[in-house]
């Protein structure tokens, strides 16, 4: 499985918004977007941010979505072609497919501080879906799926510690969380309103359809 080994903060600086790639650190003053680098793209020529072409605007929207969910180009295009084959608005369907990724669900349940940490939890075998271990971060959850934690004391303790860091955390309406066990159930399909990144999905569709 491919991994991005450079600084995650470069992605936020390139897109000019917080992509929440480092969990709680993104909410502190240490976040580069909060500093003087806010309007500077990474690299020695980052200050040369002129007017973008129509192609550039669409490219940035696509890159923003890809980096937000932490996937590579081939994975993203696989989701796009899948969304094209399904009924309904292609852009919204694409975002729904990405929202249903297991690593995104684990992050939105606050089992992990970031999607990157959620992927590590999954690949290390801490997460079970419908009673079976799932070690694929791109596993797509369905309505009715029950997500539980491996029965070992270490796994349960790690998740409960993460939940305790943010006791006022509330899950989105399509997920139902039981903090005490801890476990969760997918009770609905995510809607466009559940996508927390500001993105013009139609521009993404136009870019990928060119």
Describe it for me?
The chain is of the alpha+beta class. 39% of the residues lie in helices and 8% in strands. The protein has helices spanning 9-15, 54-69, 73-85, 90-99, 102-108, 115-123, 153-164, 201-208; strands at 127-129, 132-133, 146-149, 175-178, 183-186. A five-stranded antiparallel beta sheet has the order 2-1-3-5-4.
Give the C-level CATH assignment of the largest domain: Mainly Alpha
Helicity range: 25-40%
Total separate domains: 2
CATH topology of the largest domain: Ribosomal Protein S4 Delta 41, Chain A, domain 1
For the secondary structure, the number of strands is 5
β-sheet strand percentage: 5-15%
Q: How far apart, in Å, are the first and last alpha carbons?
A: 28 Å
* Net shape: globular
CATH architecture of the largest domain: Orthogonal Bundle
Average residue-wise pLDDT: 84
Q: SSE order in H/E notation? A: HHHHHHEEEHEEH
Low-pLDDT residue spans = none
Question: CATH H-level name of the largest domain... which superfamily?
Answer: Ribosomal protein S4/S9, N-terminal domain
How is the biggest beta sheet arranged? 5 strands, antiparallel
Total helices: the number is 8
* Radius of gyration (Å): 18 Å
State the assembly state of the protein chains: single chain
Strand order of the largest sheet: 2-1-3-5-4
List keywords for this structure.
about 210 residues; alpha+beta; Ribosomal Protein S4 Delta 41, Chain A, domain 1; Structural Genomics Hypothetical 15.5 Kd Protein In mrcA-pckA Intergenic Region, Chain A; about 40% helix
